[in-house]
Design a protein that fits this description.
The complex is a heterodimer of chains A (about 120) and B (about 110). Chain A has about 120 residues and is mostly beta strands. Chain A is built from no helices and eleven strands. The chains are: A mainly beta (about 120), B mainly beta (about 110). At the A-B interface, β5 and β10 of A face β4, β5, β9 and β10 of B.
Chain lengths: ~120, ~110
C-alpha cells in the first residue's frame, strides 16, 4: 500500500545509455514532481505535472524528458546519460491544484549511478 | 538556487539531549515546512508553520518562525537514536504554480 512508489530503486549504467525511472502514486493526487538530489543532498526541482499537463520545467537539459500518461503516473526518461546525472531522483505528489502551500508526499528515491 | 540555508550543517548529540537547527530563507512566504530524510529513504513531512504563526508544536517537535528575520528553527526535544536523519526546511515560491524549494539540510546524529 505504498503511497508514492518509484522503480527502479537502484540503477547503474554506462555513459551514453538511455534509461527510465517510473513513478506511481495511489493517493489520488493531481500534481506530481521530479526532484534531483545531488551528492551533497541539495534537492532541486526538475519538473511538475498537473493532471498530465507539464506546468513546471526548470532549466533541465533536454536529454531529460518527463511523461505523464495519466495523473497517477509520472515517468522520467534520460537520454545519453552523463557522469553528472548521477544522483538520487525523487518523485513527489500533492493533492489539488498546485498553489504555493501544502505538503509534498515523496517516493523512496531512485539512485542513478553513471559509470 | 536554494531558497533556504540551514545551520548547522551537521549536529551530533547524545540520546536525551535536545537538537536545534535553524533555517533562513530569502523571500516572503505563506508558510514554511520541515521534512525529515532517513538515510537512503525519501523525505517525510514533519510540520508546517504558517506565516502568521510564531510557534507550533507536534509531539517532541517545536518550530518557531520569525518572519522579520526570515528565519525558522526546529527543536527536537529528548532526542532518540531513531531521530538520526537529515532535516530540511522548505518554502514555496510565490509564482502562480509554486515550487517547493528546500534548504541544504542539517544532518543529525543521535548516539545512544
Amino acid at each position: 500500500d505504498t503511497a508514492v512508489s518509484q522503480t527502479p530503486k537502484y540503477l547503474v549504467t554506462q555513459m551514453g545509455n538511455d534509461k527510465s525511472i517510473k513513478c506511481e502514486q495511489n493517493l489520488g493526487h493531481d500534481t506530481m514532481y521530479w526532484y534531483k538530489q545531488d551528492s551533497k543532498k541539495f534537492l532541486k526541482i526538475m519538473f511538475s505535472y498537473n493532471n498530465k499537463e507539464l506546468i513546471i520545467n526548470e532549466t533541465v537539459p533536454n536529454r531529460f524528458s518527463p511523461k505523464s500518461p495519466d495523473k497517477a503516473h509520472l515517468n522520467l526518461h534520460i537520454n545519453s546519460l552523463e557522469l553528472g546525472d548521477s544522483a538520487v531522483y525523487f518523485c513527489a505528489s500533492r493533492p489539488g491544484t498546485p498553489t504555493n502551500t501544502g505538503e509534498l508526499f515523496f517516493g523512496e528515491g531512485s539512485r542513478l549511478t553513471v559509470l | 538556487s536554494q531558497q533556504g540555508e540551514e545551520d548547522p550543517q551537521a549536529l551530533s548529540i547524545q540520546e536525551g539531549e535536545n537538537a536545534t537547527m535553524n533555517c533562513s530563507y530569502k523571500t516572503s512566504i505563506n508558510n514554511l515546512q520541515w521534512y525529515r530524510q532517513n538515510s537512503g529513504r525519501g523525505l517525510v513531512h514533519l510540520i508546517l508553520i504558517r506565516s502568521n504563526e510564531r510557534e507550533k508544536h507536534s509531539g517532541r517537535l517545536r518550530v518557531t518562525l520569525d518572519t522579520s528575520k526570515k528565519s525558522s528553527s526546529l527543536l527536537i526535544t529528548a532526542s532518540r537514536a531513531a531521530d538520526t536523519a537529515s532535516y530540511f526546511c522548505a518554502t514555496w515560491t510565490t509564482d502562480s504554480w509554486g515550487k517547493l524549494q528546500f534548504g541544504a539540510g542539517t544532518q543529525v546524529v543521535v548516539t545512544p
